[in-house]
Amino acid sequence: MTFYSCFDQKGDVIARCQTNGEIEVLKRMGRPIAEVRELSREESVVCSLTSSPSEFNEDL
pTM here? Predict the structure, then answer.
């Protein structure tokens, strides 16, 4: 399972997503996504164990 972190212009994490489709939805919603980075395998495992990526959304 792969997760992605989405960052704004200041380099702050604003969302974590599991698919490119989720990232595109956030962009269409007007979220200021400036950069997307794939989490390492270890980070992805922790993310999948702690909560769903859609729950990690600091702007809402």
Answer: 0.67
